[in-house]
Amino acid sequence: MNGTANSIRLLAMRLLLCGPGELPAVVDAITARDGWPAVTGLAERWKVFPALSARAVVDRMPIPQDLASRLARNTAVQFFRTTVSMRAGCDALRVLSEAGIPALAFKGAAVIAHLHTGMRDRMVRDVDILIRPDDLTASLRLLEAKGFRRCIGEGSIEDYISFVEHSPGSAGNHAISLVNPQDAAVDLHWKLGRFDPTRLLESAGSVEVLGTPIRVVRPAFGLLLTVHHALRNDLVPDEIARDVLDCAGWFRLMAGRPAEMECAREEAARLGLAEVLGAMAVIVRRLGGQAPDFMGMESATTALADLYFHQLEEGPINTDLAYLGSGRAGRQILKGAWMGWRRYQGIMRALESRQGEASLSLTQRGLRLVRSVVRLSPRHWHQIRALTRAKDRLSE
To answer: Hey, CA dihedral for 287, 288, 290, 294, is it positive or negative?
Structure first.
């Protein structure tokens, strides 16, 4: 990437997060670079254009009319898609509730419930639902009876469960994606790293969405699950832009709820997420948003925040780098291969295809990894090591 592109990427995130005092300088910098086409393109790629559209209207930003019209159209289309997705999530939660299976919504659905007044301001492509591990089989049976189907049809459900248990890329997250007859998706989770599903379920609150009462995660855990998702995605800016905005929203909400913020801090320490929580606070502050000043003092926290900004400027890392030096990742892969390499590889390729990723052979991945290692500076290697250690703690 060239220097102009680097500046525009940073300015785009600052535009979305900075306070009113800094906004005019950010707007002037974008305008001086003729950067509005790039900024709106990034907002679409990062799936945050509803936030940009809302800010453009409220703060009367000088976005060229053709781009402003495109933003408005895309926001209207996404509002419809988000509504369809939320309807699918509400239907799934209702089915589970009527069967006596405890379940809650988190991530995007919880962000909408706690931080926004409606579904126009936050994109949701799928609804994340948490259940207890013991309820997985019954939940799948119930949802499939109501027309939901698995997105990954490769192998049996037992093969799939074995795959996610032995996939380092899952980073302790065990979930299966389902779609309803309208092709709206829900992700059914039964394990979220070191989070205790029972505790999350017992502390959930109830809200009404689209006329349906649903259970959503409490704010302290909502923040930590957002942090958890950002770490699972290696703090890659193109993948976690919504997470950064959501963290900023959670921090604002909990600024007036000190007990909730203290709960988040205590739970982060217990779950091995304290350094990453601090890193997200540092990221939000560096981008002009508000986050607690007492977070982000540790060396590992600074390294993780620096890794985010390194990727924002230079592009995403080779995510296989995060497995270097991780005995956990190596053991998981070997155990998965031992239990059936063809089945393991088949499910992995099916997941990569669904996510729009290219499937590489082991030789291709190995050569790509070597090239990435050769280019690492000592400072960047320190950042990668901090990421590896943080991800290893998710499954301890």
So the answer is: positive
Q: Establish if 71 belongs to a structural domain.
A: no
pLDDT at 251: 97
Name 130's bridge partners: 104, 189
**Interval 140-171: pLDDT, tens:** 999 999 999 988 755 677 777 776 676 655 66
Residues 6 or more apart whose CB falls under 8 angstroms from that of 205 comprise 215, 216, 218
Radius of gyration, CA atoms only, the chain: 21
Half-sphere exposure of 287 (CA within 13 A, CB side): 30
Residue 238 neighbours by CB distance under 10 Å? 15
Any bridge partners for residue 215, and if so which?
A: 206
Give tens-digit pLDDT for 262-281. Answer: 999 999 999 999 999 999 99
In a domain, 154, yes or no: yes
On whether residue 72 sits in a domain, the answer given is no
Residue 54 φ then ψ, to 5°:
-65, -45
Average pLDDT score over residue span 12-34: 94
Could you tell me if 106 and 16 lie in one domain? no
Which pLDDT does position 306 carry in this prediction? 96
Tokens 């050569």 correspond to: 367
Instruction: Inform me whether the pLDDT recorded for 287 exceeds 50.
Output: yes
Q: CA-to-CA distance for 15 and 241, rounded, in angstroms?
A: 12
359's CB contacts (< 8 A; 6+ apart) are: 348, 349, 352, 353
With tokens 């007990």, the residue in question is: 259
Rounded to whole angstroms, the Cα distance separating 14 from 30 reads 11
Query: Looking at the structure, do residues 54 and 101 belong to the same domain, yes or no?
Result: no
Taking 70 as the threshold, does the pLDDT of residue 351 lie above it?
Answer: no
Domain that holds residue 258: 231-396
User: What's at 98, amino acid-wise?
Assistant: E
Which of these three, 13, 34, 63, is where a domain ends? 63
- Top pLDDT among 254 and 120 is at 254
- In one-letter notation, the amino acid at residue 243 is D
Q: Are residues 255 and 320 in the same domain?
A: yes
User: Measured on CA atoms in the order 184, 186, 187, 188, is the torsion positive or negative?
Assistant: negative
Q: Whole-model pTM?
A: 0.85
Q: Is the pLDDT of residue 68 over 50?
A: yes
189 and 277, same domain (yes or no): no
Euclidean distance between CA atoms 11 and 22, whole angstroms: 11
Look at residues 391, 334, 357, 329 and name the one whose alpha carbon lies nearest to residue 168. Answer: 329
